[in-house]
């Protein structure tokens, strides 16, 4: 092909490109660099991401689990949920082989092997492998107790402490001895109780080597030596 013909073809292509007229809505979308939520103002790089986000405000949950009926606003959340029913754990640890249903749980688990503790307290510099452990720890410094008992008003820094406390009011004893059927409100109390059946005595006196099934018994015994 002659050089003059190539030049003419290039010119023709440029003229054709300029003559193509895009619909107004498509031109506007191409020109936009962000898509903003009219409710909360949050911005997104793609319109499809904005559409997904809007379901938070509308409450729309079009993706339903065909096993338990629970519904979700996004398809990805439904896929993750179904692993509860199927037992699927697609994220295995390449070190120990333990598998997880969520990638985030695998990342957290791997810190057991690596020793990584990326969350550091800005007050005492103590590091943690998980963010929620750092948040809980910082309440030691701040004195924050966000978990309140509706019955007596007492407050706690951790939800597990509130759960244990509530059993004082309800009388719930979910930990049962499989030998004598006696029940306890805390797992630690059940562990101590079981020692009475097994005759296990893990608490040893360093002075006379006598052993006890409970730490309180050892503490009381030591007073015999110390006066």
TrEMBL record:
Transmembrane domains' residue ranges? none
Q: Which domain of life is it from?
A: Eukaryota
Cite the GO molecular-function annotations of the record. DNA-binding transcription factor activity, RNA polymerase II-specific; RNA polymerase II cis-regulatory region sequence-specific DNA binding; zinc ion binding
Task: Give the C2H2-type domain ranges.
Answer: 35-62, 63-90, 91-118, 119-146, 147-174, 175-202, 203-227
**What Pfam families does the database record attribute to this sequence?**
zf-C2H2 (PF00096)
Location of the protein in the cell: Nucleus
Keyword terms: DNA-binding, Isopeptide bond, Metal-binding, Nucleus, Repeat, Transcription, Transcription regulation, Ubl conjugation, Zinc, Zinc-finger
Cellular component terms, GO, for this chain's entry?
nucleus
Q: Which PROSITE patterns match?
A: ZINC_FINGER_C2H2_1, ZINC_FINGER_C2H2_2
Similarity comment: family membership: Belongs to the krueppel C2H2-type zinc-finger protein family.
What is the name of the protein in this document? Zinc finger protein 271-like
| Species, as recorded | Octopus sinensis
